[in-house]
Amino acid sequence: MRAAIRRAGEKVKGKLADPIWALGAMSGTSLDGVDAALVLTDGVTISEFGASGYRGYSDAEQAVLRAALGKWPGDDLAEAAEVVFRSHFAALQGFEADVIGFHGQTLAHEPQGRGTHQLGDGAALAEALGRSVVWDFRSNDVELGGEGAPLAPFFHWACAKWIGADAPLAFLNLGGVGNLTWVDPLSTAPEGEGALLAFDTGPANAPINDLMMERRGVAFDKDGTLAAQGQVVDGALELFLEEGYFRKMPPKSLDRNDFSLMLDLVRELDDADAAATMTAMAAAAVMQGMEHCPVAPQRVLVTGGGRHNPVMMAMLTSALDCPVRPVEAVGLNGDMLEAQAFAYLAVRVMRGLPTSAPGTTGVRAPVGGGQISRV
Ligand SMILES: Nc1ncnc2c1ncn2[C@@H]1O[C@H](COP(=O)(O)OP(=O)(O)OP(=O)(O)O)[C@@H](O)[C@H]1O
Ligand SMILES: CC(=O)N[C@H]1[C@@H]2OC[C@@H](O2)[C@@H](O)[C@@H]1O[C@H](C)C(=O)O
Questions:
Q1: Any stretches that span the bilayer, and where are they (predicted)?
Q2: Residue of the nearest CA to atom 4 in ligand 2?
Q3: How many CB atoms lie within 10 A of CB 33?
């Protein structure tokens, strides 16, 4: 395994070295657990997808992480750090891999302010797992003036190639926050240099989850059942769309709680109307974002938990004039795409390739990021 890692940084007669197995780990803004997934790649082409796994957070662990949201290095984070370490160790330990891509848990994200903070110690994880770990993917981009997010777009580019796409398309992640990547798979520009435009669309599931917890004491609106019983209240939706974020040109990114005041917009509504209206807000934010695509995408491939919400999917389908499908329609795994993305990005970091570009984070030139903790 170590030989494979050493080889990873080298070029073979001008070409990139052989593909290696990378294991990605992601704990997203929904704070539900750690996804882990294997990808065989040379950092450019996806050769094969491998096994995946999931380690959910207990209620107590989730409460610890929730309490840590908004905190920065230097704050008291010992308990949250222990949760991140323990859960990632458990999620990753059963796999064989040449390298691990460890995203960590985003606690705070203020790219134009204090920076971006992903909790997690990649060096400690490397030592415990006995494998090299690439981590801290976002800070270099932010230090160089970028948004530090989204970072999945380079992987979306590789996915577009993997599915044999021959026309511009969009990947839409409906996680806690939503993000959109427009890809032109026929562009001759290197990935990230004209072939991609990406940004966070707005809040997606996080505010709906917060509403469900506040009103019903449950984690989320399973299958959009509550939203399906309500009516969208146009006045609240219009106020939401007046947010300055929607007038900003991409690239742009969000913190999970940037839209936490959304709950106030539905405060007077009954539970079902509030859920319907918040679901419509997530879809409307995507619609606003679509207007930024350089060329209308021929299809939208949806990843992340929101694709399981039939109400949100129906709203998107009726508002967009191209097919909207879960990524499973093209053979991808929408529950694991982000973990796979950080596996892929880890190999790019090992090989000195960029992981973001002006079109994806607004950074001035294509840049790499990430620390490498070798064993
Ligand atoms: N069956 C379902 N019905 C409705 N919503 C669902 C369903 N399954 C998942 N979700 C929503 O998707 C969320 C999880 O999405 P996902 O795992 O993509 O988020 P994440 O990766 O944590 O977020 P991010 O991409 O912002 O980091 C859940 O919290 C829930 O709101
Ligand atoms: C700062 C941060 O962690 N942002 C996340 C979050 O979750 C979705 C959206 O906001 C996206 O910008 C990003 O994650 C994905 C994996 C990304 O970087 O592509």
A1: none
A2: 149
A3: 18
Q: Identify which ligand lies nearest to the alpha carbon of 65.
A: 1
- Beta carbons of 33 and 27 less than 8 angstroms apart: yes
Report yes or no: 76 and 32 within 8 Å, Cβ to Cβ.
no
Query: What's the pLDDT at 14?
Result: 45
What are the residue ranges spanned by the domains of the chain?
A: 2-150+335-373, 164-330
Condensed to tens digits (0 to 9), the pLDDT of residues 5-14 reads 333 344 444 4
Q: Which ligand is nearest to the CA of 255?
A: 2
Burial of residue 248 (CB within 10 Å: 0-12, 13-18, 19+) is exposed
Instruction: Output the CA 28–ligand 1 centroid distance in Å.
Output: 9
Given its phi and psi angles, is residue 167 left (phi above 0), alpha (psi -120 to 50 degrees) or beta? beta
What's the gap in Å between 253 CA and the centre of ligand 2? 8
Tokens 């997690």 correspond to 120
Q: What is the sign of the dihedral through the CA atoms of 291, 294, 297 and 303?
A: negative
pTM for this one?
A: 0.95
Q: 263: exposed, middle or buried (C-beta count within 10 Å: 0-12, 13-18, 19+)?
A: middle
Summarize pLDDT for 140-189 with one digit per residue, the tens.
999 999 999 999 999 999 999 999 999 999 999 999 999 999 999 999 88
Q: Which residue has the tokens 């059963």?
A: 94
CA 29 / ligand 1 centre spacing (Å): 9
Ligand 2: residue whose CA is nearest its atom 14: 150
CATH topology for 164-330? Nucleotidyltransferase; domain 5 (3.30.420)
Are the C-beta atoms of 77 and 49 separated by less than 8 Å? no
Assign a CATH topology to domain 2-150+335-373. Answer: Nucleotidyltransferase; domain 5 (3.30.420)
CATH topology match: 2-150+335-373 vs 164-330: yes
Q: Whose CA is nearest to atom 15 of ligand 2?
A: 150
